[in-house]
């Protein structure tokens, strides 16, 4: 029976009205996806998908998504596109309102590696993308794989050289690679119980979305691949990340503000290992970051632990880091970072930029073992760091790699790499620093030269309170 187009359009308008009502209510923003109503399910194999991994199943999968979305618009019930065990090679898939990709265990969505597998617009290069959709998600226990290693031209233990498509004129530089999964301008997104593997570029990209829940997922990217960020949250509000495992070569959780401010982000109960920053605000930072909580996170052998790289004039305020265990180490100077457990910086990216302010940061119950110290650097004028609190912090400094020490890393922009002796805390351009119950320990061996627990320029650091601060040699 043919569906009446006017009826579908009317019901779709009803869906939008319902979604707007839900996003403003005090109840769960994911009420439809999490409702007790029976779930409608359509299998991609019923629409012709082969699941061999040898031929493209794009048309069959997209037809299933389209049918599922139409069903959702008609009945206002969640609809799952199911993937039985198998490998499904595909070009870009467009996820639509009311649809959840249910990738079952032993099922894998494989992203294509040809330029023609992706749209003409480079900013739409994703294996799976949802744009301006509501009530969408991914789950099922299976895997989405970007085949990132297929884009490597030359393997390098320091930093892989990636195949790019710039020879075709499609773009410039080595960032000519597709992202794995993106949600753009969406409402009520839920991503859970799924594995994301081998992204060629960024893995999970949340852009201008409202009400996003990401939980119980794993992300794995090759450790020597540049730009394979774990989760990039851009200009999105009301985001929850919990119980996630991220093991990748670039920034693991990375909020950015490019076109608007970002509010209410929580990341909890996560395990992270990265060759860059485990948590990094910026460096894209044109608008405000406010009201973030990072709690109960384990950071393992990362190039940098907790980082703020504010370079474009946006202001940061009301951020809490609590109950975090950090270990950092040197990897290579070609990667940003010098093994700092905590790195808070704001400075103009270039002559056309300005420094944003950073205020009201709390670091509570933090434990770290690192090859370098804490770096707190504001800028003259509007870029002063204000009201930083360190409460119940245990810092252990010791070296166990042979990389060159004695450098401060301001990158990107600003002053670049600067020669500087190591210290427990390096501080500049701060107004308001409260330190209570901080224990700083120094390993004896090579780090004996680290004889300066606190280094600050008196003319640029004001209103400092030290209470129960201890520094001494590390006892085995």
Automatic annotation (TrEMBL):
Pfam families: Glyco_hydro_28
Record-level Gene Ontology MF annotations: hydrolase activity, acting on glycosyl bonds
Signal peptide start and end residues: 1-26
Highest taxon of the lineage: Eukaryota
InterPro entries per the UniProt record, alphabetical: GH28_Enzymes, Glyco_hydro_28, Pectin_lyas_fold, Pectin_lyase_fold/virulence
Keywords annotated in UniProt: Glycosidase, Hydrolase, Signal
UniProt family annotation: Belongs to the glycosyl hydrolase 28 family.
Protein name, per record: Polygalacturonase
């Amino acid at each position: 029976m043919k569906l009446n187009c006017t009826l579908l359009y009317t019901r779709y308008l009803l869906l939008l009205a319902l979604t707007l009502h839900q996003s403003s209510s005090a109840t769960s923003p994911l009420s439809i996806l999490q409702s007790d109503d029976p779930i409608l399910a359509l299998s991609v194999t019923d629409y012709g998908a082969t699941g061999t991994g040898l031929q493209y199943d794009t048309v069959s999968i997209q037809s299933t998504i389209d049918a599922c979305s139409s069903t959702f618009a008609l009945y206002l019930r969640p609809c799952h596109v199911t993937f039985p065990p198998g490998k499904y090679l595909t070009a870009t898939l467009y996820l639509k309102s009311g649809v959840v990709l249910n990738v079952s265990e032993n099922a894998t969505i494989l992203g294509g590696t040809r330029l023609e597998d992706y749209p003409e617009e480079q900013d739409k290069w994703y294996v799976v993308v949802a744009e301006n959709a509501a009530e969408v998600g991914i789950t099922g226990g299976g895997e989405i794989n970007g085949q990132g290693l297929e884009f490597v031209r030359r393997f390098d233990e320091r930093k892989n050289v990636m195949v790019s498509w710039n020879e075709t004129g499609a773009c410039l530089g080595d960032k000519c690679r597709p992202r794995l999964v993106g949600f753009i301008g969406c409402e009520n997104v839920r991503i859970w119980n799924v594995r994301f593997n081998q992204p060629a570029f960024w893995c999970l990209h949340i852009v201008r979305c409202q009400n996003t829940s990401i939980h119980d997922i794993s992300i794995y990217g090759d450790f020597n691949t540049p730009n394979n960020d774990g989760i990039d949250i851009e200009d999105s509000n009301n985001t929850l990340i919990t119980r996630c495992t991220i093991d990748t070569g670039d920034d693991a959780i990375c909020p950015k503000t490019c076109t608007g401010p970002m509010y209410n982000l929580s990341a909890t109960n996560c395990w992270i290992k990265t060759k860059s920053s485990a948590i990094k605000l910026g460096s894209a930072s044109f608008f405000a970051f406010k009201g973030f909580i990072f709690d109960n996170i384990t950071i393992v052998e990362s190039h940098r632990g907790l980082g703020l790289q504010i370079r474009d004039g946006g202001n940061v305020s009301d951020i809490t880091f609590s109950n975090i265990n950090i270990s950092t180490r040197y990897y290579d100077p070609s990667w940003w970072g010098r093994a700092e457990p905590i790195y808070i910086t704001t400075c103009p990216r270039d002559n056309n930029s300005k420094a944003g302010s950073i205020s009201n940061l709390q670091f509570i119950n933090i434990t770290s073992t690192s090859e370098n110290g804490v770096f707190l650097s504001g800028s003259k004028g509007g870029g002063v760091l204000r009201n930083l609190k360190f409460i119940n912090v245990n810092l252990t400094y010791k070296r166990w790699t042979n990389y060159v020490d004695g450098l401060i890393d301001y990158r990107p922009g600003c002053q670049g790499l600067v020669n500087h002796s190591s210290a427990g805390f390096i501080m500049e351009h701060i107004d308001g620093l409260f330190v209570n119950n901080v224990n700083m320990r120094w390993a004896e061996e090579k780090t004996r030269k680290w004889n300066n627990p606190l280094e600050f320029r008196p003319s640029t650091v004001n209103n400092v309170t030290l209470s129960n601060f201890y520094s001494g040699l590390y006892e085995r």
